[in-house]
Amino acid sequence: MLKSSKFLDVVIVGAGAAGVGMCKVLADFGIDRYVCLERETTGASFEKWTKGMRFITPSFTSNNFGSPDLNAVTYNTSPAYTLKTEHPTGAEYARYLKGVVKAFDLHVLEETEVNSIKKVSAGFVLQTSRGEMAAKFLIWAAGEFGYPNNDAIVGAENAIHNSEVRDWEQLEGDEFTILGGYESGIDAAFHLTKLGKKVSVLDARATWEERDTDPSVSLSTYTLERLRRAQKTGNLELKSDVIFARIESENRHFVVRGENLDGEEFSVKSPTRPILATGFAGSLEAVKEFFEFDEDGQIILTEEADESTITPGIFLSGFFARIFNQRKWRDNGRKRQQQFQSICLFSASHNTFRAFGFYHEQSRRIEYSGRFRCGNQRRKSNRRHDVASFAVGDSCIFLFRRNGARFGFD
């Protein structure tokens, strides 16, 4: 029987960005009987980032404007303010997380390995390197960086995953092949070409040509800027429409074999071990018995709280929860697109609005919701207008007239 002193309200597993953020949320709600278990130290996965790797999302101190720093884990902190940099390195961000834990006296227990988890009627029992612990609720925030996807291709033992590279300058050789052309692949290409190396990037999709507002589809602007710099060196080759199947070692060389989208076989020879930029398998494997998955292997969570649909009391925080919500928002967005022709920001004469506006093509109706300033007062507003006319200018400014009034979208 567990001692009452060891029975907690919440146990969080993982003291990365998601775990530390959840600690602060619980503390803000006045929940004190919680603990965050970290097998290494706070932010350890960020400290393992390859030298030179930085956040693609910019940090900006905008708290005073009511908008949190994009990379912050709590509203009243800012990595930009703490670190004095726009795109933090992994080591810098780990320092920020440690600072948050210290500043708010969050309950993080480092160097604690979780060996097993069992669901019981009262909650969950965890066997850890520090003994047995139990809680009513469990939040899994163990992340993904420590679990590279090495099973993405046959013969992965002949390659090196990009997360296993500590410093690009330490890689021997002058020519490299990178499998995967998304963020980490282009990041690796940027650093290697900067060192004067010749680089080939292979991917099924030309991610570098994608133009989508979904950041999981197209490259970030930060990465695109560095990609252009890498291309100017003349040492970068981008190859799309290829599906790599296996890596073989032949006569002191490595050969990547696969086929193109037309089904034709191809092979690429590399004098150095190919670099896998194939993402991460993630830590979800350790707790998959507690979650439901669809036929495509994607996790299913409750829409209300990212809770398991088959094991009440266990929640998911971090990367996989974000993927689930992106999929949900994308599906909802497609339904919304069927109703509204365009979404834009706009301003009206006299009163300045900053709001999301929707134009319904069939009913010629404008809807918007947001805040506006009238004199020294700030107000919230929700309005609907029937539209007499609607047009799109060459500069992508949307105009409509109603009773002779003219409103501009920008």
Description:
The protein has 410 residues and is an alpha/beta fold. It folds into 3 domains: 4-53 and 89-145 and 282-327, FAD/NAD(P)-binding domain; 156-276, FAD/NAD(P)-binding domain; 342-409, no CATH class. The protein has 7 helices and 24 strands. Strands 1, 2, 3, 4, 5, 6 and 17 form a 7-stranded mixed sheet that branches. Strands 21-20-19-18-24-23-22 form a 7-stranded antiparallel sheet, with no helix packed on it. It has a 5-stranded parallel sheet with strand order 7-14-8-9-10. Strand 4 and strand 5 form a beta hairpin. Helix 5 runs parallel beside helix 6. The longest helix has 21 residues, at 319-339. The chain is globular and about 60 Å long. Mean pLDDT is 80; it is low at 1-5 and 332-410.
Blueprint (SSEs and pairs):
Layout lengths: L6 E7 L3 H12 L5 E4 L6 H4 L31 H5 L6 H14 L4 E2 L4 E7 L2 E6 L2 E10 L19 E2 L13 E5 L3 H12 L3 E5 L18 H12 L3 E4 L2 E9 L2 E8 L4 E6 L4 E2 L15 E2 L5 E2 L13 E3 L2 H21 L2 E6 L4 E9 L4 E10 L2 E10 L2 E4 L5 E5 L2 E5 L1
Parallel strand pairs: 1-2, 1-6, 2-3, 6-17, 7-14, 8-9, 8-14, 9-10
Antiparallel strand pairs: 4-5, 5-6, 11-12, 12-13, 15-16, 18-19, 18-24, 19-20, 20-21, 22-23, 23-24
